[in-house]
Amino acid sequence: MRPAHLVLLIGAIASAGCGGEDTRGGVEIEYNCPANALEIQTLQKETAEFAAESGIRIRLNPFSGQDKLYAMMAAGKAPDIFYTSSTMRDQLAAEGLLLDLRTVGRGDSLIGRLWPEAIDNGLSADSGWYSLGNWEFTCGVYYRKDIFREAGLAPPDTSWTWETMVADARALTVPPGPGGTGGRYGIFIASHFVETLELMNGARFPRESPVLSIPPESAEAYRRYIALISEGLMPDILRVQALGMQPAQLLDNGRVAMLVEAVPDQSLFDAVSKPWGVAPIPRFRGKPPSYFRSASGGLSISASTKHPREAWEALKWIVTRASTYQPTPVLRDVDFAGGWERRYTQLAGSGFREVWDLSTRYPGGDPRYFVRFSSWTSGLILGRLQPLLDQVWARTLSVDSLVAAVPAINRDVARELDEIARTRTLTPPFRRKIEQALREIHAPPI
Amino acid sequence: MIARERTPLAALAGITLRWSATYGALALLGALFVLPLGWMLSVSLQDAQGVFAQPFRWIPAHPRWENFAVALGAIPFGRYFVNTAVITGCVLLLTLFSCSLVAFGFSRIRFRGRNLLFAVCLATMMLPGQVTMIPLYIAYARLGWVDTYLPLIVPAAFGSPFYIFLLRQFFLTIPREYDEAALIDGAGRFRIYWSVILPLARPALATVALFCFIGTWNDFFGPLIYLNSPEKATVTLGLNMLKSQIIGSGSVQWHVLMAASLLVMVPNIVVFVIAQKQLVRGIQAGGLRG
Amino acid sequence: MTMALTVRTRRTIAGYLFVSPWIAGFLLLTAGPMIASVYVSGTAWTMLSPPVWVGASNYARLLTEDTLFTLSLRNTLYYVALAIPLGLAAALALALLLNSRVKGTALFRTLFFLPSITNLVAVSVLWLWILNPEYGLLNSLLRAAGISGPLWLQSEHWAKPALVLMSLWGVGGTMLVFLAALQGIPAELYEAAHLDGAGGVRSFFHITLPMISPALLFNLIVGVIGASQVFTQAYVMTGQAQPGSEGGPNNATLFMVLYLYRKAFQEFNMGYAAAIAWALFALILVATVIQMRLSRSWVYYEAGER
After folding, report:
1. For chain B, which terminal residue's Cβ has fewer other Cβ atoms within 10 angstroms, N or C?
2. Nearest CA to CA, how far is C115 from chain A (Å)?
3. Tell me, which fold does domain C65-298 have in CATH?
């Protein structure tokens, strides 16, 4: 092939690849949606309907990680609507990257329909409202009804205790066969749900705390968790990760008899075909009930969006009408439990309604480590804490040593906050918040 | 020590022993090398239960060829294929042109400072890309080139030390008589380069083209940091996205993931089978002179 | 006199013209960014706010306080120290096998070389499943041999060896360089040695190794440079987990480039990342210089090539 032909060919391909001009009318809003194939398919159909009725086209941008978001903002190509976790929100708001939703939402009828938490969870230090939560969940203990029946055990109810659960797990654990494979574990609790045990044991944490603290109730919860592993009632965390299966699959193929997971959890409902029920997290003797309710983030609008009004309309549509998350828990006038029972018929009589009601009556907040800390220090604390936790779960580090490591971590935190205060440009309310945190660290309350 | 004499029978036995030992070792190692690929093919034809079956059935009862279709559909691989082809094509053209130009200069023209410049050129091969990556990223972001193909394509216009080196070595072996004949005919340097040297250097150019193709097609780090929009992704990036999607979903479908990985490997294998000799010669040329 | 100068000047101009793309590239894409990178490494910069000069404090923190950096350095050195000797030995062994004069080695040469040019991300995904402790190929084979395999990528002690094992699968390119060098050894040397009564092992150490020592040096230097920059495998296989766990179990696979990527593109601390890049460069430079110095004592060049 002559060089000239080659050049022409490449040029043709290149111009084809660059895409044609967008000659359709109307406004286009770019939305960073979760990179879930099923959800994307459904959204594509529904956004077409939304475009037909409102003239606003929502362009889906499947996103599997948050690390690209900041890069896109830095390059001036931020999407209009995107998910912000509670630990990212403050940092982005402090740099003026998020639109204050009050500017577009004031007077909107939606505000009255929202539970207060949906707004509270999105407020930042300068009282700006930067994110609207579109999903909340609690967690519970899913159990295989047939396995319980086979073993002659009474299924768990809403008032069961930790001791009962451990006894059940003991009765249900079957050791592995020859060759080291097979067998069944009584229960599996993923390590990111250990924090719910801390809650039930009475630990309380300040929201968005700049420093790490592990109160004695938490340490006790960890010890009980590790005892499950030591006794062989629960598979080693690393071993489960190493299995290459999601926890729901473990429940479905009977490798575990009980599983702590989110409630509701669509992917679990889709994945588990055997009969199951769900019970709340068991009570710890002598401690008041306090059930986990997630608050890990929500949808935000970029401050540099060219169409704030249309972005707000699109946001409202996503929260209230995009079918993957309907019925949504953030709206007051929605029958959440009933709606989900209609979507998934196996939920009726499974204990789902009771678990949800308990979490509404005794909400304990979101104690998970990647939500618990202040936006400025979360990354640093997690970076130091997670490896230690990994060692604790692998039982190569004692819980006492973990607790003893906390002051050193907090010293680093103080240093990092100091540097942030010195080197970042921050709007005044956020600067004040950081300075206050520094004061508290250096002169702890009596 | 005096050489020991061996009877013809012993010599034959010795040769046969060595022959079968060599073949035996080659067969064993060959099997070990091919095993992962064979297993990959096997897993990609299984269904969701077969992947986790104990013991594993190497040849599934009902091979699910549709896994490949599912893999292609889960993520717009067709689009990514086109994207990657565009990038690779542009880079290939620019690289061949610029590297041969520069190699011609280093090999055919004796000019002041040539050896020093060439030494510097070679030295830059040792520089880890990460040192220049950060300022380059910042510069590209300022220029608005992030999330376009420009940061991946434009550097190819300036030549790459390894290919310059390969081509220069080859050009040095072309006798000067060709140049002199052309000079007598009144050709300028560029004419000599274009009409005399380039056609003679076709094998070396083919080698460079092959390596450049493979390197650009498989590039991960570049697209990872410079491309953000999912529709602009390359095949390599797309596979990474698929992996994150599948492993994060409710039930992990390893068979689809293996099918996708196999598909991504196919262009490499095709190029390799076609151009085997060229690749082998190229690597050996580069390594021997180093 | 005047004519000669003009010719030389014309040649110089022509030379520089031909070489100009590379010179331009060197200034714009290498020298310039290197200088800028020195500046950036002295700042704290998130790209959205203007840079703030902090002097050498990034380097100070890197060398004295940052335990994660020291860990990433140790991880990188461990990987290089394990992967390079094993890789070279394996490549040489394969090349020796292929060099024997039996028919059909071309097929095996293809087989051994193929894995090294396939897409590294695809290879990483494949090995992610091969290394699965319960269902993966590797542990299945070990189980058949009666050994209970470790948790590989989930174990902090076996994660790096797992990556080294994966790298052995890709020694094809190195093997080819050795093969070419081996084929360049004249047969007379072996015959002469055999006449003197030398056996296989002695001729290996006294003929083969010295004759291929230039190729060995090349593979060694290139190998060390490449292995120090290990990223893709670590990123694809362990680097996209929960925040805080991206370095593998207990940060066992946190290599320097992965740490750099984290600092630059997840925490947006560009200045600190630039400092890490310079530390990496220093490491590679020192390693290469040491190898070149040491090479004078063991590398044998043909007469006149030094």
Report:
1. N
2. 24
3. MetI-like fold (1.10.3720)
